[in-house]
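Dear U.,

For the methods section draft, I wanted the exact inputs and outputs in one place so we can describe them consistently. I've listed the two proteins in the order they'll appear in the manuscript figures. Please don't edit the token lines directly; just add comments below if something needs changing.

First protein:
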Amino acid sequence: MSTWGDRTLTKRLAGEPLVKPFTRNETSGTFKVFQEIAMGGQEYGANTIKTGGNGEIAQNVADNLGGVGYVGLSYANAPGVKAVPIEGVTPDPANASTYPLSRKLFYYTIADKTSPEAMKFIKWSQSSTEAAAIITEVGFIPGK
């Protein structure tokens, strides 16, 4: 396959392509990161099916024979989907530093204008065991 979604396999099952590539929409940061990391900067193919978010991709993959897509770690074990190891590494919190398609998330604030409440929240989210438990519960990995 030369690009994500450029080709569907010629053999069809019940009139459906064997591969149905689902992706985030073009305004998503995940769309750009996947394009850079997994696709080496190439453009997405014309046959990709753009969706609004992780949940929608996971549901589409689960509902469509030949569905394939990428989602955040918190959706990797959604009903009806199977997370795929890459280079022998499974997408799991324990492998966050070695999984080839992992990325970090960052907080951004307005320089010199961040409210004390926002700074308190950021500090809490980075240092509190309560915050770490919540972050883990929703399927993300707490910062270190």
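Second protein (the one for the lower panel):
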Amino acid sequence: MQSAKRLAGLGILLLALPLLSGAAHAADRLDGAWTTTAASCDEVFVKRKGNLALKRTSEGWSAFIVNGNRINGANATCSVKSTKQKGDVTTFLLSCADKIMFDTMTVSIRFKDDGTFVRFDPEFPEVETSYHRCDR
């Protein structure tokens, strides 16, 4: 009986593995510095000890740095709590905090290429914001 439960659990894990690896791959592809306008990279980021960091004057820009499961922006910091992959769309469950409060939110993205992705709301997929990689 116990071995049947273990086998069933292993089967479920093996079925879910491609979904988990797709979402993990998307999260890995996000590592780095991103902004809504590729031309603004020099205005928003500065190199410190070989890594890009947000300039102190970057507050007006929609820019952030992803490092593993941490996302740092000028006004808030988020951590990735969970990811889901459905086709070419990856949805992240984020726990975010700023100087005053914290919140949990979902964010859906789709990669255009290795240097560009779009963020959108699945309820309104026609409204999207493009982000461009700054560190490659």
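Candidate sentences for the figure legend, describing the second protein: Confidence is low (pLDDT under 50) at residues 1-22. Residues 2-133 form one domain.

Thanks,
Y.
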